Amino acid sequence: MITPRPSAAMVATLAIISALLTSSSVSAQDTPTPYDCAKVSVSGNSYDISALKKTYLVKGEATPVYPNKQRVDYIVNPCQAIVVPDGEAKQHCVAGAWVCQDTKVIFDDGEPKTLSLLPIAGTAPAADGVPAREVAPLAVLADKIENVAEVPWNLTLKGGLIKGQDQSAVITFICDTSVTDDNLAPTLTGYQNGVATFSWKHKSACAVHTQLPVQESMSGFSVFLTVFFSFAFIYLVLGAVYNHQVYGAKGLDLLPHKDFWRDFPSLVVDVVHHVWDSVTGRARGGGYVSV
């Protein structure tokens, strides 16, 4: 039995299909670029907040809770998970937390004592009955603030599910070139419905590179029209100047080749009639008469 050999067209088709499948497989395996706080991109602008790659303590206000006081603090790192010092694991959130809520009781005498620790934002593997979570940093433009030259931007850090409520932290970075202290912590603006919000004025919040909008290239037809009208304009201007200088022409007489353009509509009509007659096989007027 003789097996037919595949044709060249079939071989080419199979090659194309194989290439498409290979490219789809590669695309599916590609992973997103890891978050790098030295190269944060927001609407075409680049920001570098790597100078803030450290752990900050944001203290809340103490409120009376009989018989003592209570204060909710936050430990924040906008670039990576909080580094827990050796021997202090009990005073910090679980490993992988980027933003940790630390509720403390304040005594009249003695050191404050931690009552609860909640990982507001960060990554963690799956545990018993608790799904895995990813911090998934997301940077977007924020609302414009008066008397601020640059538009602020928000960095959202996601967290897990605590007591049936999703947790996250939103840090609003505000460009302020006068704030150069890298040890200055952000300001807590609130915590509501599982979202902790912060405001952070710093020079690092200013754009280090602004991307100009890319102009789309002109299509072939647009290029043709541009060239055509450019030549037409040059033709009219130079013709008018020539007629004025050489013949002293004025008004419509300045138009170069005025007689041609005056008869041009009739020429177009004649050409159209000729083409139509050629297509339909009809003859117009004239011709020889046999005698």
UniProtKB/TrEMBL annotation:
The chain crosses the membrane at residues 221-242. Residues 1-28 form the signal peptide. GO terms for biological process: autophagy; protein transport. It is found in: Cytoplasmic vesicle membrane; Golgi apparatus membrane; Mitochondrion membrane; Preautophagosomal structure membrane. Gene3D superfamilies: Mannose-6-phosphate receptor binding domain. SUPFAM superfamilies: Mannose 6-phosphate receptor domain. GO terms for cellular component: cytoplasmic vesicle membrane; Golgi membrane; mitochondrial membrane; phagophore assembly site membrane. Keywords: Autophagy, Cytoplasmic vesicle, Disulfide bond, Golgi apparatus, Membrane, Mitochondrion, Protein transport, Signal, Transmembrane, Transmembrane helix, Transport. Residues 35-208 form the MRH domain. Belongs to the ATG27 family. PANTHER family: MANNOSE-6-PHOSPHATE RECEPTOR FAMILY MEMBER (PTHR15071). This is Autophagy-related protein 27. It comes from Linnemannia elongata AG-77.
